[in-house]
Sequence to fold (139 residues):
Amino acid sequence: MSEAMRAAASLYNDPRYFSRSEIRIRKNKIRRARIFRRQVFLLCAALALVIFTSILFASTIKSQAQSDDYVPSFKYYKTVTVHSEDNMWSIAQENFSSDHYDGVESYIAEICSINNIADPDRLNAGESIVIPYYSEEFK
Fold:
């Protein structure tokens, strides 16, 4: 029975539309619809859980994979004394590692950050600065 028919029947208090069997049928229909919605929700939740778990598992395996010829390198710091002919670019060129930095500019930026240098073009002779370097030897 449609909602329109039910509304019309309620206006006239027609007993055949409000019999116990009609009420039971209506309640069963509502209950079946509720059960179906719950099953669809649980199916979607289970599917989402399976997808999330598989992505997490795949990314964990991929992130922990290393090649057999992998050699770790360790980051260390050393002090360098600036000479009269030195500038930041020449010091960075001598100690720069392309495996660990995008470019010499990023290496110079890290040196400036470590030593609180505002202008990398203004180095004084005799000044000591700390620079990072990488080594495969564990010290």
